[in-house]
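User: Predict Lipoprotein's structure from this.
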Amino acid sequence: MKRAFILSIGFLLASCSTLNNLYDQNKYFEQIRDSEIGMDIRTLFMSSPDYKSYQWGSPKYLTQELGHGYREYQFAYGACKWGLKVDTNDGIIVGWRYIGDSSYCKYKKYYEGAW
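Assistant:
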């Protein structure tokens, strides 16, 4: 009984790490960015953990005017850099792109940290 309990705890601790290896972590990053299209940039700043720290100005994000009523907000997460194309009239995200090497942009689908 005790041995089964210890084995099941060990399996649970290892399973998230194992499952993450089955998923394309770069593709998961892209799925998250794709899901942001159509959202209001202000809502995204307040609701997403990826952007919450940017809301208070640290770290800083860059903006670039693209013309024709669009602005790009540029972000970095370590060596991963991406930009969100936002309609300046209503603040809606209309697209995104990588800035630099896309191989640095990876997210793990399952949490691997301490409980």
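The chain has a mean pLDDT of 78.
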